[in-house]
Amino acid sequence: MHTEKILLENTHPTRYWHKLDDGRVQCDVCPRECKLKEGQRGLCFVRANQNGEIVLTSYGRSSGFCVDPIEKKPLNHFLPGSSVLSFGTAGCNLACKFCQNWDMSKSREMDTLMDQASPEKLAETAQELGCRSIAFTYNDPVIFMEYAIDTAIACHERNIKSVAVTAGYISPEPRAEFFKYMDAANVDLKAFTEDFYWSITGSHLEPVLNTLKYIKHETDCWLETTTLLIPGHNDSDEELDAMTKWVVENLGPDVPMHFSAFHPDWKMMDTPATPPQTLTRAREIAIKNGVRYAYTGNVHDEDGESTYCHQCNHKLIGRDWYTITAWNLDENGCCPECGTACAGVFEAEPGHWGAKRMPVRIHREMA
Hints:
Layout: E1 2-3, E2 12-13, E3 17-19, E4 25-27, E5 35-36, E6 40-41, E7 47-50, E8 53-56, E9 61-62, E10 64-69, E11 83-88, H1 102-105, E12 115-116, H2 119-128, E13 133-136, H3 145-156, E14 161-166, H4 172-180, E15 184-188, H5 194-201, H6 205-218, E16 222-229, H7 237-250, E17 257-261, H8 276-288, E18 294-297, H9 302-305, E19 307-308, E20 315-320, E21 323-327, E22 358-360
Parallel strand pairs: 11-13, 13-14, 14-15, 15-16, 16-17, 17-18
Antiparallel strand pairs: 1-6, 2-8, 3-4, 4-5, 7-8, 9-12, 10-11, 10-22, 19-20, 20-21
């Protein structure tokens, strides 16, 4: 826990908390259930006890904005080729030793949040830039859910979709509210053992599995998953076999799975990078177990990045990194060779944003 003076003008009220008999306040957003004395921040760093209530200290403040290809989230079956306005804040409710956005998610300096924008300003900016969606990413949006939800509402008024890139570590009641406003989500399924979750991320596996099932079966939110394969930690055939079987049995065969390459970072600098053949092996195991759309990531692998018809293996969407190189879906989102539907959220034509990344500065208009 972190204790410091919290500036009143930088806070926003929240709903998911309750007072304890000993005078502390418990945050109920995620399974950590941080119990905070006056002036303390939770592990996430952005939710804090101020005057006996849990407040959000990062509302309207961001660590930066950037227009990305939607495939970078990664989402391969949600408006392919389109651009997405991406942003995050500071802090995280997990403690992943391999964090690849640690400069933002592990930040303990509110000065990291140099850019400011109201939800309405974000929606306006996304529309002006021609973005089809906005993504809450870089750090986990569940910890700034009030800001994310208000932004999603403002974006929906302009027909702009909302995307959550999340670890899925959220409690049932806030989960229901949060995903009600999300149009798509990529959930990090970081491993398939409790030991990995506890020793490497400081969290637990079961709440993440519950979130995956909830999104798939209780919402209209399009779902994809990502697993960063770390040599010697979560990349065994046995674990990949169990994980992919669970996905097919509990989420169905149409949920795309992304297997991404690890590179040494944060507190795992001595762990080697993931060999490309590990990703190929994971993809093969997933397909063998009935996953219809399995992808490799963080490596150059056109076959592993492209979408194929699960019935006849015709290439439906060709990709070279984040660039669409082939588009063979018909106007109904089906394979032109055999008529089999491809699961996803597609428009008649793909977007043409390509692989470019465009940083954006938003003029300050918040007090």
